[in-house]
Amino acid sequence: MTPDESFEATPHSNPPYDIVNFWCGDQDRTEMTVMCYGGRFDILALAKNMEECPAIEREFLGLVKDLLSMNNDDFEYKPGESDPMEEMCHWMAEACFAQFRALAPRPTEPRIITVEEYYTTPSIQLTITVNDGQLTAIQSSGNPGDLMPRTRLSSSYTALTASVPLLEPSMVKLPWDSENERPSRPSRVLVGNEGKEQYFKPAYREISERTEREIKTLLRLHQLGLSDKIRVPKIHVRCLLEMKSERQHHIFEKHGFIS
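Above: the chain sequence. Below: its structure as tokens.
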């Protein structure tokens, strides 16, 4: 679907959200990043912000306890039982629904964005709290976050991929997810003016060695002519983002997988 095609909104009882990051390292604190419509939200849940209502605080701490139990050696997920991760994520998101609706209005038509826009759109900071005995969320201050992969690959990688074309991130666009009324995650992407559909693979934080090893292996397999005998993903183009304020290169590798 393109922005020029017809778009008819369908009613949702709750705002559709997509969890893109979650963290729980303490017994009284969880953090989550979600996408909702065109907005990105960093959500903080902290037990001390719920002390006004002991019942809500106990509920939260119980969810954290269940979640951390997944790290136990004897933890075993049983089909039919609630998933601690899903329970916690939904609990946090539900507290923020009013803010989602207010700060990320439902789109009236599809909006096609680029990979660069997806990764660099600043997050809105929300803190879960209690107001008059009800769980809610308030907008809070903090450094706006982003989802930018921050992997700086070596000079040997640069030489290795010299023959692979370099594509501007503005030429890589995300398809529209009509069911959830938001841009899709950057996995299946539209490339170039013709909008050719291919697959995108970002090089995420602190895995540069793994990324370089994977790319080197793929290129080597193609050089040896083995792609005719086994199914080998082909790297069509590279997509490079440079954050000038940090004087750091952010590398994305887009793989076009052979079907």
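Residues 17-139 form one domain.
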